[in-house]
Write a structure and sequence with these properties.
Radius of gyration: 21 Å
Strand order of the largest sheet: 7-6-5-4-3-2-1-8-9-10
Number of strands: 10
Order of helices and strands: HHHHEHEHEHEHHEHEHHEHEEEHHHH
Shape: globular
Oligomer: single chain
Bound molecules: iron/sulfur cluster
Length: 435
């Protein structure tokens, strides 16, 4: 099993942890939760017999991925609170809705619209408009993440988009399954991207294949591309942050510790382990109580102990501990953190990309400029609806959306007379333009 990975990458600890996940066979998604828990207990027992955390350093010493960065943008936030039509600080978007994987937990899979790829000029004009919009000169879009509802590396314009955004001075980053990265110039990507985050959900190749719905060869391909990136970053001194992200579901929680160990062996900057989002009907059947259980807590704390001075393994506790429920009904955050679908549809957030929510669509960059969409009456109509009495985020939205923590902070300010709370330290907060 582990033979398929370049063996020199893996430590004996990782190999042993990966091997342990085969205890109930390799049909990983057919096991019971009790069987998965039993494997995790075996893993913890094993770790307690060795010195796996001899070089432990608090994972948030190096990089803190679970912070709210609104307070680092006081001018924009104040203009927003004053009622000005501000540019989003961050836009999360995709260049396509396509994806060659079929992950079991994929929220985007619930929202498939007819695919509608745009031509390059549409994207170029979009990026130019990102620089133009705003309530004052230079108060434009500061950062774009290519995540949203599609695998942007499937677009022929992926690298061109990244390079052009970088040229314009907009921070640009990507969340990807990593499979198609090898088709692009990795050196250019490492030079232009602020962060490159690869979704990687299991350390056992067969578990990876089953959880992520991909071919057998994908696992090694992505690992090899990661290795090439690591070498390039070291050799050329690129500033990009390279990390893996695991979307954790109880069904394959036994992959957490092997993955935390494997990522340390590989030499990437971080592994972040996060919850899974679900739609308002709970279509994916995510068990949010499990995330808050003692077992999950213990597992994730062990995962964090793999951290060292150069590698951070961390859980996204803020969302994991939130559970399913929101504290607010009105949604304030989307003008500061806007989303755009891989179809070109501008909607306030990913919850409303599907055509069933077309009353919440603001425009489509294939049909009119982003500048016009942002300046339109429709933009304000949709934004105002989300902060009206007619809207209730507690019952009308997907769970734990991208904007959730931004929304919480704005709710506290607007409805509870709170103030923007500054983080205690900022030297360990990366990518400050991604709020
Ligand atoms: S609270 Fe609802 S409307 Fe607001 S961003 Fe989240 S999912 Fe969208």
């Amino acid at each position: 099993m582990t033979q398929s990975l370049p063996n020199k990458i893996l430590s004996d600890v990782t190999k042993r942890l990966i091997q342990s996940t085969e205890k109930y066979g390799t049909r990983f998604l057919s096991r019971t939760i009790e069987e998965v828990s039993d494997i995790i207990q075996d893993q913890i027992k094993y770790l307690n017999t060795i010195d796996f955390d001899a070089d432990f350093v608090d994972p948030r010493e190096l990089i803190h991925l679970d912070t709210n960065k609104l307070s680092l943008h006081t001018e924009r936030v104040q203009a927003f609170l004053d009622g000005k039509r501000v540019a989003p600080i961050t836009i999360d978007m995709a260049l396509t809705q396509k994806c060659s994987y079929a992950c079991t937990f994929c929220y985007a899979g619930l929202q498939q619209n007819p695919s509608a790829p745009a031509i390059w000029n549409v994207y170029k004009n979009f990026l130019d408009d990102c620089k133009k919009i705003g309530h004052a000169p230079n108060e434009c879009v500061k950062a774009i993440s290519l995540v949203s509802d599609g695998e942007s590396t499937e677009s022929p314009y992926f690298q061109t988009f990244v390079e052009y955004a970088h040229t314009l001075g907009i921070d640009i980053s990507v969340g990807t399954n990593g499979l198609r990265l090898e088709n692009f110039d990795l050196d250019v990507l490492a030079e232009c991207l602020t962060y490159l985050r690869i979704n990687f959900n299991a350390a056992h190749p067969k578990a990876y294949q089953q959880v992520m719905g991909c071919s057998e060869t994908s696992f090694n391909k992505v690992i090899q591309t990661t290795q090439t990136l690591i070498s390039l970053i070291k050799e050329k001194g690129h500033k990009v942050t390279l990390g893996y992200q695991m979307v954790l579901m109880p069904e394959y929680a036994d992959q957490v510790l092997p993955l935390a160990s494997m990522c340390r062996d590989m030499g990437i900057n971080y592994l972040v382990i996060k919850h899974c989002s679900d739609d308002e009907q709970g279509s994916l059947g995510v068990d949010y109580k499990w995330y808050q259980s003692e077992k999950a807590d213990e597992l994730l704390k062990y995962a964090e102990r793999f951290s060292t001075a150069t590698y951070s393994s961390q859980a996204k506790w803020s969302k994991i501990r939130t559970g399913r429920d929101r504290i607010y009904s009105k949604c304030y955050g989307t003008p500061l953190l806007l989303q755009m679908s891989g179809t070109g549809i501008v909607a306030p957030c990913g919850s409303f990309f599907h055509k069933d929510y077309s009353h919440n669509h603001i425009g489509d960059i294939k049909e009119e400029s982003f500048y016009k969409i942002w300046a339109s009456d429709d933009y304000m109509r949709v934004i105002n609806f989300l902060r009206s009495e007619k809207f209730d985020a507690k019952s009308m939205c997907a769970t734990l959306c991208l904007q959730d923590k931004v929304n919480e902070q704005l709710y506290n300010i607007i409805e509870k007379d709170g103030v923007l709370t500054k983080p205690k330290r900022i030297d360990n907060i990366p990518h400050t333009n991604y709020i």
